[in-house]
């Protein structure tokens, strides 16, 4: 009789099978309980350590998926946000500026065409030659500008002369509004008084910017050169309405002041101005504290934006002037 070796398992691992095939023995109809390796694996699957490990793997996979999705969304937003802002901004500031940037852009269409033609054909080469001669000799003889530059210079002067005439009229109108609006502040009705505050705020803005632009675009200023027209043309190609938004600030502010003034005047006329206040069907409005706070914030915010715009425009004009003096007007 042959002695049976009890050290060997009753059902050893089938020959020719690797570990993956052994793990799939249940799929082949072999009970994993009779296979030692599978029996140990089956025993470990139900332990708390195995469950925690699987849960940690699931949580880690979900975390990686969320992080990857967030990165893709962030990349998409960062690439498309400038385009979205560039498309949406005109729909925001054009109504506020009463569509005046488009009016100025259409008025300067011929000027922009001349600026593009002058720069593409002859202006850049002429500027390089002029400034190279300036640095090579102590007293250079500047060459005469090309015909395109002369034509551009004339068109630029005509356009600025028209704008200065408008700014003078707007400045006078804003000054008249500022002189007459304080009388409305004596009215005890909060509605026309608040409208008068908005009107005088816009009138002050129109007066400041109208005077500021008249000084910047005065006679014998660098803003009347063909160089400045080309710089503004290039700026328009980068930011479509940026130059015309700047030019439209005095007109838009003064027009808003006139609108607020008219609304305040007719509000007073139709509510309390044509009848005895004691028998009027429209009682005097007393503004609540929260509403008064909102009005104060709106007026203060508008003035802060106007001051910031004035500082930004002044810095931009100074930058254009420094670029012209340094010999690198378009670089």
Characterization of the model:
With 331 residues, this protein is mainly alpha-helical. The chain has a domain at 98-326. The chain has helices at residues 19-23, 36-45, 48-96, 100-107, 109-136, 147-180, 190-216, 226-238, 242-273, 289-326. Helix 5 crosses helix 6 (147-180). It starts with 18 loop residues before the first helix and ends in a 5-residue tail after the last helix. Residues 1-35, 133-142 and 327-331 have low confidence and may be disordered. The chain crosses the membrane at residues 169-188, 194-217, 244-270, 290-315. Keywords: Membrane, Transmembrane, Transmembrane helix.
Structural class determined from secondary elements: mainly alpha
Q: Detail the poorly predicted runs.
A: 1-35, 133-142, 327-331
Q: Please describe the biggest sheet, giving its number of strands, its sense, and whether it closes into a barrel.
A: none
Radius of gyration: 39 Å
In short:
Keywords: Membrane, Transmembrane, Transmembrane helix. This protein has ten helices and no strands.
Topology:
Elements: H1 19-23, H2 36-45, H3 48-96, H4 100-107, H5 109-136, H6 147-180, H7 190-216, H8 226-238, H9 242-273, H10 289-326
Helix pairs in contact: 4-9, 5-6, 5-8, 6-7, 6-9, 7-9, 7-10
Transmembrane segments: 169-188, 194-217, 244-270, 290-315
Keywords: Membrane, Transmembrane, Transmembrane helix
């Amino acid at each position: 009789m042959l002695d049976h070796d009890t050290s060997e398992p009753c059902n050893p691992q089938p020959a020719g099978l690797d570990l993956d095939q052994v793990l799939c023995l249940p799929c082949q109809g072999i009970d994993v309980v009779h296979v030692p390796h599978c029996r140990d694996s089956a025993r470990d699957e139900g332990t708390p350590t195995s469950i925690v490990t699987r849960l940690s793997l699931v949580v880690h996979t979900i975390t990686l998926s969320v992080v990857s999705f967030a990165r893709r969304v962030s990349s998409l937003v960062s690439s498309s946000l400038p385009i979205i802002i560039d498309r949406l901004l005109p729909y925001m500031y054009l109504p506020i500026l009463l569509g005046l940037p488009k009016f100025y852009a259409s008025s300067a269409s011929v000027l922009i065409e001349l600026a593009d033609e002058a720069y593409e054909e002859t202006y850049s080469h002429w500027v390089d030659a002029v400034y190279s001669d300036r640095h090579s000799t102590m007293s250079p003889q500047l060459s005469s500008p090309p015909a395109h530059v002369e034509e551009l210079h004339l068109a630029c002067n005509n356009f600025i002369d028209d704008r200065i005439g408008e700014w003078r009229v707007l400045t006078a109108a804003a000054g008249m509004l500022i002189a007459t609006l304080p009388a409305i502040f004596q009215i005890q009705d909060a509605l026309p008084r608040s409208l008068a505050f908005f009107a005088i705020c816009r009138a002050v803005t129109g007066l400041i910017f109208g005077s500021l632009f008249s000084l910047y675009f005065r006679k014998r200023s660098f803003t009347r050169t063909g160089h400045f027209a080309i710089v503004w043309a290039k700026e328009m190609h980068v930011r479509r309405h940026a130059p015309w938004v700047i030019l439209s600030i005095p007109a838009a502010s003064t027009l808003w002041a006139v609108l607020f003034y008219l609304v305040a005047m007719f509000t007073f006329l139709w509510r309390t101005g044509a009848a005895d206040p004691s028998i009027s069907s429209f009682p005097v409005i007393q503004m609540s504290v929260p509403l008064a706070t909102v009005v104060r914030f709106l007026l203060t915010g508008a003035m802060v934006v106007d001051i910031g715009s004035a500082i930004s425009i002044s810095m931009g004009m100074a930058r254009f002037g420094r670029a012209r003096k340094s010999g690198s007007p378009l670089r």
